[in-house]
Amino acid sequence: MRKGLLMSSVVIFGGLLVAAWMVHGTGVIKNDPEASISIPDELTSKLQVKASYDGENIWFRYRWPVERPSIFHDVLVYQDGEWVKQAGEEVGPSENFLTEDRVSMMIDDGSVPLFSRYGGYITIGEGLTTFTGVPETDEERTKYLPETRTDPGDFEAMKPESDLETLRKAGYFIDLWQWRSSRSNPNSVGDDGLVSAERSGDKGTGPYTTNWDKALNQPKVMFDPAIVPGGALNIDDVIGGVITQDDTYALTPAVAVPFDPTLAWKNGDTIPRRMLREVSGSRGDVVEPTVARWEDGFWDVTLVRKMDTGNTLDDKIFREGGSYDLAFAVFRNASTMRWHYVSLPTSLGLGQPAELQAVKFAGDEPAWDQPWYETTVFYPGQVSWPLLTNPEKHPGADKIAERVPVKFRHNPEQLAAYGVEIEFADQIKRQWFLTLLASLGLIAALGFNINLLMTRKES
What we know:
- It is a single chain.
- By secondary structure, the protein is α+β, with helices and mostly antiparallel strands.
- It has eight helices and 23 strands.
- The chain has two domains: 2-28 and 428-458; 42-66 and 101-207 and 277-410, Immunoglobulin-like (Sandwich), CATH 2.60.40.
- Strand 3 and strand 4 form a beta hairpin.
- It has helices spanning 2-23, 115-118, 161-169, 235-239, 385-388, 397-401, 412-423, 425-458, and strands at residues 44-53, 57-65, 74-79, 82-87, 102-108, 174-180, 191-195, 199-201, 204-205, 208-210, 221-223, 233-234, 256-258, 269-272, 274-276, 280-281, 293-295, 298-306, 323-331, 341-342, 346-349, 356-360, 373-378.
- Strands 1, 2, 5, 6, 7, 8, 17, 18, 19, 20, 21, 22 and 23 form a 13-stranded mixed beta sheet that branches.
């Protein structure tokens, strides 16, 4: 009888041991497209930056690794008599590489006090597009600054227009530069925007528009057949990486002609869904001295802008002896939306002490002989500003209330891990509970076994 009990208890103990091993730290982190979850294979990457100025213009140079360049964004594919949109709309990386590579930079001059301490985190409100549980809407729910809402945690709680105008005039906005490998680079321009009550472009004309005629249900333009035979690319060549920067791949004004529906279109013919155009106004302030290229596993991009554009409601003005705060984002390996990499805030000095020193030069362009400033960029997950400032959800909320900069408490690797932890908070709690139950069972089984063995010895 006792022998049977002992054998049974050993089996139970072994089973509980296996159960404890299985429920501890396994099966938690996994992609879930329905919940907008896609964890990158690499949670961190590197971005190198240099800055120079000549008193009239300021230059920034960026360099970051990309295994395969993504030079298309979305396309129109001819299929059985119709032109069908095909785009990189997957959660996470686009399998067909139909999401362009990008680099962006947020800039502040001290008018947004929290930015220097917490960077882009302050622009992430609750319920933004692609966050888990946020219903799909026709209009993207974009980044915004906390003071533009009566309740910073409520996207819909917009302050009156008069208050927003007062904030904007006081400089309460983030300047946002963007470079896009498909929708701006072929025309040698960047894209100048801002974040205030929403993320938007500056006033003026942006570098691209949609290549679609709704009335005729067809593209507006195509490639010039004298430049691209047949007036179109082939979808297999596009997604297979056969088409490179050495080929004609973007609908720039120099290669585009009005669409001709009478051509002998065949299945697989492909035309970009975006056509590039001349920029104008404040939105056209950021340009490239030359078209950027991907070489040897790296994008190397240079952007330049007037230090003082005169557009004080759209742009941060750079001045000799000034200090600024920057935050970077990198979109690589055909990923878009929040599946990108971000940096912690970086200080910039024009003749002032800072992490990134802008070097003054004389001549037509910088020599770029200064060392790179290298920063670690990381996957941010679904970490919002309302979450970070909520003491019930974030143990460090008290430090934020005390305005302790994030760099003093966390490094990028920790923040990347925290971003993943937030995405799987419910699963992790459940796993902890299961592990606790299995552990308690192990303790009870071990105690029972010891008791049986001691009883046998006494007998």
